[in-house]
């Protein structure tokens, strides 16, 4: 039996996925979580062969959890399953050690095949997204620029951002200015929007 962990914050979607995948004769759903912070503890407890992770979850993101699983449970293969087919997300997922990346609008039979392929050691990537990622190029933002933009998501002041990321206001202004230039936007909120749309945040 192939043991699966499902991480999806929408209860109805999680239940439907569990039901459909549970119909496969060689699949067993051993854990279901709705919060990113629960992924690693439940995986360590349930020891799944494959973890199906959404990206945007309450708490820790699926991408961060994928990286943590690679460290703490290297035998568990990660398949990212998301609504947001953004090229930057695909790159970050691969960097985090994910074995696959699919968007949620595909048929469940395709997902079942992908799970088996990932377990067999293959990489499974949505072909349209792979092409988009290649044409989009790498993420131009440094980790610090990403941190500062992420802290600016809710319209925080420079002083608030500085406190959150433990930098001086002058340094925060420099990082914001650099991020605005790299995203070719006019202000920090546009830079945040552009970075999110590309999956860089």
From TrEMBL:
Domain called HTH luxR-type: residue spans: 134-199
Keywords for this protein: DNA-binding, Phosphoprotein
Highest taxon listed in the record's lineage: Bacteria
Entry-annotated residues carrying 4-aspartylphosphate: 54
Domain Response regulatory: 3-119
Gene3D superfamilies in alphabetical order: 3.40.50.2300
The protein's name in its UniProt record: Response regulator transcription factor
Source organism: Streptomyces lonegramiae
């Amino acid at each position: 039996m192939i043991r699966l962990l499902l991480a999806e914050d929408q209860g109805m979607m999680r239940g439907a996925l569990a039901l459909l995948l549970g119909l496969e004769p060689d699949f067993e759903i051993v854990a279901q979580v709705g919060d990113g912070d629960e992924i690693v503890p439940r995986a360590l407890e349930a020891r799944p062969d494959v973890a199906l992770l959404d990206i945007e979850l309450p708490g820790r993101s699926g991408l961060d959890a994928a990286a943590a699983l690679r460290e703490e449970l290297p035998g568990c293969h990660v398949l990212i399953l998301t609504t947001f087919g953004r090229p930057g997300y695909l790159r970050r997922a691969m960097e985090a050690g994910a074995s696959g990346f699919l968007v949620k609008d595909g048929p469940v039979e395709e997902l079942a095949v992908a799970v088996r392929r990932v377990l067999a050691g293959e990489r499974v990537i949505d072909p349209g997204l792979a092409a988009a990622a290649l044409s989009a190029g790498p993420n131009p933002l440094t980790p610090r620029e990403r941190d500062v933009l992420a802290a600016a998501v809710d319209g925080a002041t420079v002083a608030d951002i500085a406190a959150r990321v433990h930098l001086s206001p002058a340094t925060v202004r420099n990082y914001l200015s650099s991020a605005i230039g790299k995203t070719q936007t006019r202000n920090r909120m546009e830079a945040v929007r552009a970075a999110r749309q590309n999956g860089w945040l």
